Amino acid sequence: MRALDHRRPATAQEAVDLVARHPGATFLAGGSNLVDHLKLGVASPDVLVDVRRLPLDGIERVEGEDGAVLRIGANVRNSDLAAHPVVRSRFPVVARALLAGASGQIRNQATTAGNLLQRTRCVYFQDVTTPCNKREPGTGCSALEGYGRYNAILGASPDCVATHPSDLAVGLAVLDATVVVLGLEGERRIPFDELHRLPGDRPGADTTLARSDLVTAVELPLDPDVHRSTYTKVRDRASYAFALVSVAASVRMEEGRTTDVRLAWGGVAHKPWRARRAEAALAGQQITEDAVRAAVDLELETTTTNRDTAYKVAMLRNTTVMTLLDLAEEASR
Amino acid sequence: MDREISLVVDGASHAVTVDSRTTLLDTLRERLGNTSPKKGCDHGQCGSCTVLLDGRRHLTCLALAIAYDGSEVVTAAGLGADEPHLVQRAFLEHDGYQCGYCTPGQVCSAVGMLAEAKQGHPSHVTEDLDAAVELDDAELRERMSGNLCRCGAYPGILAAVRRAARG
Ligand SMILES: Cc1cc2nc3c(=O)[nH]c(=O)nc-3n(C[C@H](O)[C@H](O)[C@H](O)COP(=O)(O)OP(=O)(O)OC[C@H]3O[C@@H](n4cnc5c(N)ncnc54)[C@H](O)[C@@H]3O)c2cc1C
Ligand code: FES
Ligand code: FES
Predict the structure, then answer these.
(1) Domains plus CATH for chain B?
(2) What ipTM goes with this model?
(3) Residue of A nearest to B42 (CA)
């Protein structure tokens, strides 16, 4: 591991300025992903700008320009977010996504921003002895011909087939969340869908953020209408494993038909995959097994699979059917 | 880069100079001689390095010591300093181990887990997110899933944690 300087800025702005000034600097939050990468040699910063003790740890209702939002500070621990009463009652998809991830210990360490900005678990990305375009641009992608069980099936590129590992991110994708970012030019707001990106020919960049952009909060719109939402994760063992596929869904129904339906998938792409074609197909419809299957298949028209990933198509279809049927039943109760 | 940090470990204050790359786990074991937390995987995957950090269960292998300057750590050794803690007695009573390597981590994790449940934290298997927590076996298994046991002593561990959950 490279020699490391550790700085503890007093303010968020100071943190941004420090990272901007030092080309080898990076933010440290809970450290559950970054410290692992320091050990593995996947990340080799020379300055850690420790933001964990910055007071970005509140969960509060704020009246915004477009109505009320629940504002979640970047440093709120995953365990505290999942246990928050408003999150449990209004945004179960967030609580469920968090509780399906990692372990009790890790959720006490992991922060909201750190979770969203964690890097792929692709085995080749984490193994510095193998080529990986995400870690070292231009070296090639070992996952194309190698171990591919976790590879992407949507939106991948010839350069990278990695998937985004965060469960929380998939949950936030259906809530039309907003990410609050402090940069060198001050504060700005990014629609959640625009935080993460597809790999294209620049797989090194997971997000649209600049190196010195500090995420300070995530805001969830507090819609006066109740949306039913949940998260279903399928994994190799019952607990403490990353998703093979996962489904986040949110619905509002009137007289047996959807008035608002949103769907996002995890474990299938370089970013949380908002299934907008499937949503359009289900708009104003009854939620039946046939309707959901048809909608999923429409979304999956552009999928690319191989021997290792073919299983994901059926798994995703069945998980989506199960999740939406359950939510529709709950909504009609 | 070296820096002096202060830590309260099992009730005793320490000032210790550490390189910025040293984990809390290595600081406890190699610098302060507290070998209660164990190094299993060193990558956050097994739970054997679990302690109570500022009151909550926490891994120490993915924590840099300098980031926790001023923190309070309680290890399994500290929990049993005077007499065995309720959770430790339950592990003894129900053979919650075989080789014992994962045990200090299991014990700290169980103590932290029971406190979380008392505060009403739900888990992945909690059906009604708004209801009070009831620690049945499915809940205990899920909530302890961050602690692996290479010997497979899970039936004894579950029995011990079930016993401890009764108070
Ligand atoms: C064994 C294991 C199992 C896991 N299982 C799961 C799982 O099933 N599901 C899941 O979703 N996750 C899982 N995780 C990942 C875990 O959720 C992440 O490691 C954690 O959320 C990262 O948060 P952190 O605060 O520790 O981030 P750090 O490690 O501190 O940082 C992660 C990245 O975010 C950047 N960063 C942090 N804060 C900010 C900020 N405010 N602004 C800008 N950049 C920032 C850092 O520079 C770094 O690049 C697992 C981890 C482990 C070790
Ligand atoms: S040694 Fe820390 S989790 Fe395995
Ligand atoms: S008792 Fe041997 S590892 Fe658990």
Answers:
(1) 2-77 (3.10.20.30), 86-166 (1.10.150.120)
(2) 0.98
(3) A36
